Amino acid sequence: MQVSTIGLDLAKNVFQVHGITEDEEVVFNRPLRRAQLLPFFSKLEPCLIGPS
Q1: pLDDT per residue over 4-50, tens digit each?
Q2: For the chain, counts of helices (H) and of strands (E)
């Protein structure tokens, strides 16, 4: 499954990340700590990211 859009709920320490495909199927919905953000996004293909 290819993630097409990511919603990112901004916070100070824990961020909620929600990824969907073009068909609007949920691929992931998980909390990430600040230190986990860069490693997480570096593994993904380019996609649209917006605030949720």
Answers
A1: 999 999 888 999 999 999 999 999 999 999 999 999 999 999 999 88
A2: 1, 4
First to last CA, the chain: 21
Domain count, the chain: 1
Domain that holds residue 11: 5-51
Please give the Cα distance from 25 to 3 (Å, whole number): 9
**Which residues are CB-contacts of 15 (< 8 A; sequence separation ≥ 6)?**
8, 9, 31, 32, 33, 34, 37
